[in-house]
Amino acid sequence: MIPQTFTDWTNCIEQDCKIDLTKEFAAQRLAVYQNLESEVTKRFISLYGVEHLSNIVKWFKKIKNE
Hints:
The chain has 4 helices and no strands. It has about 70 residues and is mainly α. The protein has one domain.
């Protein structure tokens, strides 16, 4: 299941994956996911689509700016 809301996504990352969504972590992931030439980003798009990439970029920005 691909999370459709910020709340569902944060629960998935923090509860299921046991990853702390810190500002530093968000900044690291944004550096990757905002680079459309990155192999990691290309793979993410192939697995989850551009719409979900857009969502997680927005959600990581929200965490980074809190």
